[in-house]
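Protocol step 4 of 6: structure prediction from sequence.
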Amino acid sequence: MTGETKTRLAVMALVYMMVNAVLFGAGMLLFLNGDSIGPHDQASTGIWTIVAASFILAAPISWWLTPRLRARYGRRREEAPASDPRTGRDRM
């Protein structure tokens, strides 16, 4: 695994938790505002469906979102010169 992939996975793990929370919250708002809440079994099934869907859908969404969060830093890093013109040493 390359360093770039490790960094992307680390950032994705942080983004995943936030995306999961947003998807779960949006799903619960839609579910609880709907008129489809009936017996206890039906509500329980609906809530577990939302939990599973947010858990599964958060992974591809956060994988897609992660490079876009780092785009500004990556672009700035590519434009910077490889060495410091004042000292002649490589930048870290």
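Step 5 (inspection) to follow. The first helix runs from residue 3 to 33.
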